[in-house]
Amino acid sequence: MKIAVAMSGGVDSSSAAALLKEQGHELVGFTMQLWNQRRNVNVDENGDPMPSRCCSLDDVYDARRVAESLGFPFYVLNLEKEFEDSVVNPFIESYLSGETPIPCVACNSRLKFASLDKLALSLGCDKVATGHYARVEHDKEAGRYRLFRGKNHWKDQSYFLWELTQDQLSRAYFPLGEMLKSEVRDIAREANLYTAEKAESQEICFVPDGKYSEFIDRYLDHDGRASEIPSEGEIVNTRGERLSEHSGIHRYTVGQRRGLGIAHEKPLYVVKIEPLKNRIVVGEKEELLSDSFTARGVNWVAFDEPNHPVRAHVKVRYRHKPVRATIETLEGSRARITFDEPQPAVTPGQATVFYEGEEVVGGGWIERGK
Predict the structure, then answer these.
(1) 177, 257, 300, 311: which could join 135 in a potential S-S bond, CB 3.0 to 4.6 Å?
(2) What is the block-wise mean pLDDT of the chain (370 residues), using blocks of 10 residues?
(3) Topology of domain 289-366, per CATH?
(4) Which of the 8 DSSP states describes residue 311?
(5) Are 41 and 88 in contact, with CB atoms under 8 Å apart?
(6) For the chain, which residues make up each domain, given as ranges?
(7) 111: which residues sit within 8 A by CB, 6+ positions away?
(8) Are 103 and 91 in contact (CB under 8 A)?
């Protein structure tokens, strides 16, 4: 097949390319230049640039070296404007509205796959391959493409792919889906790839120091929008009684325990963020539990939108162990999810993904409660 390979400059995408090359496929490599390094937003207190953990110019160089080593053409797609419009700005607006977003889902489905898929089609490519730890299978009887968890559950990345459409899944190819991380590194070593021992990135790529609120402050100030930086406000308990002050709602997330600065006989947690009132609501551990929640932007992967309740295992964040729940569809691509047992820290802005065994049934975005 002729395959477009998305190359991040990391060991996973590099090994995926090496594996496909060994299998005899015709490859075309693409790296996406996403974050505009010239913006000078990610600088420290001395004005010096912070080293990026992925999507950096060094990563582009590493991806090019791998393509040259394996002997296939390589191109760089400049998607800086699209990335800022589709990923960075929604990330900031989500924090300002009292949510805790996970931009990697939108980046994968709405930017990376959407852009590369269109380009691959124009070049006559049969598939779009990435280094994700996930699996896609075609169900001939149902006439549908199904998405499954990667064999390596700790590295499984199906959580980030639930927004992919049937059309995108029909061309998606995940060569590492059946592999363990150790096997992936062995492939890179055997191919003598420069990235074989490269460390993994664990943070959001455009926030190199992992300090999201500081990034938002710098970004808004850099854009002349310092007045939009959230101001101080009240921290109250669930009865509305004032306990302390916060330094801006974007510095807090549901489930947070540390950094509240409140002396109390029992540990307190953030249970709700109220942007319109500019206040943080805290409570004890049992007050963090939720019986149910609603999700917006729901995409059903395993089947078309059902007209009956669906039983599934549900994740409410990436490292959350899936738990049993009932999913009922609502109007406007929304759904209500009711847990069999109450769950802690269901956080608005995060993705929720529905599983049946190894298969991704669907997913959506957790809405803020009324």
Answers:
(1) 177
(2) 94 96 97 81 72 72 95 94 93 96 90 88 94 96 96 92 95 96 94 90 79 93 94 96 96 94 92 96 96 98 96 95 97 97 97 97 90
(3) Elongation Factor Tu (Ef-tu); domain 3 (2.40.30)
(4) E
(5) no
(6) 2-190, 232-283, 289-366
(7) 32, 34, 79, 82, 83, 86, 87
(8) yes
Homologous superfamily of domain range 2-190: HUPs (3.40.50.620)
Using the Cα atoms of residue 166, residue 168, residue 170 and residue 172 in order, give the sign of their dihedral. negative
Two structure tokens written together for 224 = 């002349």
In sequence order, the 6+-apart residues with CB closer than 8 A to the CB of 235 are 242, 243, 244, 245, 246, 260, 262, 279, 280, 281, 282
Residues with a catalytic annotation lie at 107, 205
**pTM for this structure?**
0.93
Residue found by looking up tokens 């419009």 in the block = 85
The SS3 of residue 226 is helix
Please state at what angle helix 11-22 crosses helix 57-70, rounded to 10 degrees: 20
Assigned superfamily of 232-283: Adenine nucleotide alpha hydrolases-like domains (2.30.30.280)
CA dihedral 317, 319, 325, 327 (to 10 degrees): 40
Which one, of 59, 73, 79, lies nearest residue 12 by Cα?
A: 59
